[in-house]
Design brief:
Elements (H helix, E strand, L loop, with lengths): L13 E10 L2 E11 L4 E6 L5 H8 L7 E6 L2 E2 L5 H6 L2 E4 L11 H6 L6 H15 L14 H14 L4 E5 L7 H16 L3 E5 L3 H7 L2 E6 L2 E7 L5 H8 L26 E8 L2 E8 L4 E5 L6 H8 L5 E8 L2 E2 L5 H7 L1 E4 L3 H4 L7 H6 L15 H15 L15 H14 L4 E5 L7 H16 L3 E5 L3 H7 L2 E6 L2 E7 L5 H8 L9
Parallel strand pairs: 3-8, 3-9, 6-7, 7-8, 13-18, 13-19, 16-17, 17-18
Antiparallel strand pairs: 1-2, 1-4, 4-5, 9-10, 11-12, 11-14, 14-15, 19-20
Length: 508
């Protein structure tokens, strides 16, 4: 820790001053000042496109800044490349894990170390115990869930004894228990004098883990200070464009769905597959059915099987009166189900194709778009309509999808699912890794689907999201449904308890 001059605050472990960065005519950072001291957690929040990722990449030496300087313990640092940042004790745990898929967990974590392997394994074992991680070190990275991949990335940073740790949305795919374990580790790191920049879109986490908060908007730090000086409403207001008013969020007063007057559009009966068994439920037109549960409970396996990605081992799935059990995904799409995957980067986007192509790719080989003689005009009409409807921020429909922020990419993925005019839309973690403003836009889109009579099957690890949106909810525990709850019964406490296998007694 840097020496403390009597009567003055300790020198920041990391400080950036006047950082500017532009890509062509696009000015991303307009003069950023930010510091984090030893044992401090600075929560950095801001909308997608605010410049957070660009700033972190400059700190990590991936980008060079156009102006400004970076100081470590009060001294100007020359961090022109990632190796220099790592050598200086800075480590970034990315939101989207960057593991080598065909290597084992152990190989991914220990890559780049020259120390004795047995000593490294002892240290790794200690860190895994602290974090409560029980992963097999011999598993291949391509078999890990998003949550497990993020834990591997965190272990990489812990093994490198970073003095400045940057956590980019570390809890976006973690269960409640895993989040609490992570927070315990963060508290331990604080006590050891580690300086932490904690990037998050979950405002409740700011008050639980951070010592100070900084809001980034349009390439500038617009608000910062000790976390006790702020409320959640103040942070939301700070994230909005100047003059915009905060919309109070909470449990929306839906018009009750009259199930007795409707025929289910989707019937699942005694369905079994890899990771779950004997699942039954109905889904009605204009209903949002939330599926809650911890990571590994079988939720994603269930919806993947319904969509034809995984093999059905038993039971039936009926869509609008037609048996679709075990049909391939291509047929299920035509029958009227579409899917928004959890991991948009690996399963939701064609990264080297345009926004227009990504939006309409589900319509290839149809009368709408064609395949050999593609109707480019119609393609742009469809993509443009969804850009307007969803308020997607783009420059041109022909720009690569990778040019968009995470929230705007997610809107394109949802638009593609809706372009086929499905009877049922399956949403797997629909707002993972997107900011508060984009999250509100996605919620609005989901409600529009409901109002249009589309049935929505929504898997979410964010209990607040299920409380906010769902008409009805089920919880999955160890591969089986262990609770079903009406709109009036859905609360955070009830869903969290049931997700961990504790079903509360209902009052009559």
């Amino acid at each position: 820790m840097a020496a403390n001059v009597s009567g003055q605050a300790p020198v920041p472990r990391l400080e950036v001053r006047g950082i500017k960065k532009a890509f062509g005519q696009n000015v991303v950072l307009k003069g950023i000042d930010l510091s984090v001291r030893a044992g401090e957690v600075v929560a950095l929040i801001g909308g997608n496109g605010a410049g957070k990722s660009t700033l972190m990449k400059i700190i990590m030496g991936i980008y060079t800044c156009d102006a400004g300087e970076i100081l470590l313990d009060g001294k100007v640092a020359r961090l022109g490349k990632p190796a220099a940042s790592l050598a200086a004790g800075i480590y970034l745990v990315p939101q989207e894990p960057l593991l080598f898929p065909n290597m084992t967990v152990l190989e991914n974590i220990l890559m780049g170390f020259s120390e004795n392997e047995s000593e490294l394994k002892k240290r790794l074992s200690r860190h895994m115990e602290e974090l409560g991680v029980t992963l097999s070190l011999q598993r291949k990275a391509n078999t890990l869930s998003i949550a497990e991949q993020q834990l591997v990335e965190l272990l990489r940073g812990m093994m490198r004894n970073a003095q400045v740790l940057i956590l980019d949305e570390p809890t976006s795919a973690l269960t409640f228990g895993e989040v609490q374990a992570l927070f315990k580790v963060v508290q331990d790191l604080k006590r050891k004098g580690i300086a932490i920049i904690y990037i998050t879109h979950r405002l409740t986490e700011v008050f639980e883990i951070a010592t100070s908060v900084a809001i980034m908007r349009d390439g500038l730090i617009t608000l910062e200070g000790p976390v006790e000086n702020f409320t959640k409403e103040m942070l939301i207001q700070g994230l909005l464009p100047g003059g915009a008013e905060v919309q109070q969020q909470g449990k929306r007063a839906y018009e009750p769905v009259r199930y007795d007057a409707l025929e289910p559009v989707l019937k699942v009966r005694n369905l079994s597959g890899y990771g779950f068994s004997d699942i039954s439920f109905d889904l009605y037109p204009g209903e949002i059915l939330g599926i809650a549960g911890v990571v590994g409970a079988g939720r994603t396996e269930l919806i993947s099987t319904i969509f034809g990605r995984d093999k059905t081992l038993g039971g039936t799935v009926t869509l609008a009166g037609r048996d679709i059990t075990g049909l391939p995904t291509s047929r299920i799409l035509k029958e009227g189900i579409n899917f928004v995957p959890e991991d948009r980067h690996y399963h939701g986007l064609f990264k080297i194709r345009s926004i227009s192509s990504n939006t309409t790719s589900a319509l290839l080989n149809t009368r709408e778009i064609g395949r050999v003689n593609m109707n480019r005009r119609r393609q742009k009409e469809i993509a443009g309509k969804y850009v307007d409807d969803f308020r997607t921020k783009i420059v041109s429909l022909e720009d690569l999808i990778g040019s968009l922020s995470g929230g705007n990419q997610q809107k394109v993925v949802i638009a593609r699912a809706l372009s086929t005019k499905p009877k049922v839309v399956i949403l797997d973690e629909p707002t993972r890794g997107i900011d508060a403003a984009a999250r509100g836009d996605v919620y609005s889109i989901i409600r529009q689907l409901k109002d249009a009579g589309v049935a929505v099957l929504m898997v979410s690890s964010d209990i607040e999201e299920v409380v906010e949106l769902a008409d009805r909810a089920v919880t999955v525990f160890k591969g089986r449904i262990n609770g079903e709850f009406s709109r009036e019964e859905i609360t955070q406490d009830v869903l969290t308890s049931a997700s961990f296998g504790i079903v509360q007694e209902r009052t009559v």
